Amino acid sequence: MSGAARRPAAFRIGQLLAAAEAATQLDPALTELARTRPAALISRLHPQVPTWDAPLIRRWQAITAHVPDPADPPLGDAAQTQLTLGYWHEHLHIHRARRVHTARQTLGLNQTDWAHALGVSIKTVQAWEQGVNNIPEEYEKLAETLTQRS
Predict the structure, then answer these.
(1) pLDDT tens profile 21-58
(2) Cβ-based neighbour number of residue 121 at 10 Å
(3) Rounded CA gap, 108 and 150, in Å?
(4) Torsional sign, CA 35, 51, 126, 2
(5) Tag placement on the chain: N or C end, fewer CB within 10 Å?
(6) Segments forming the whole domain that contains residue 28
(7) With 90 as the cut, is the pLDDT of residue 116 above it?
(8) What is the pTM of this model?
(9) For residue 1, what pLDDT band results from cuts at 50, 70 and 90?
């Protein structure tokens, strides 16, 4: 079992908040809902998900697949911390993916040429851009360097 699958439900709820924020103007009431009634958060956001861009939809699906039934009682202090950690973890990966994708487009490269420039497989680039895999920090830095040099 991977480490990602063992993350607490509150961490996953935080990730869902970050995905929702990246896709829409996040209503502050949703953050409060996540803290007080986590199960209701998923139900409330679920109808909006089909309107999001494809990578965010895939992220949402991957995260919700690993959310155990969150209890509806308010989250305790430890769970609040996990929610915050999950939010910032996902926030980082969503924005890193967007920056690397933008770099590829700025350089005018297709996915095959981009994969070659970064020294990874085309499948890796596709997984990054589809939101399936997180982009390691070193590839974000390499993308930034390549963009600056062009």
Answers:
(1) 888 777 778 778 777 777 777 888 888 899 988 888 88
(2) 12
(3) 11
(4) positive
(5) N
(6) 4-149
(7) yes
(8) 0.74
(9) very low
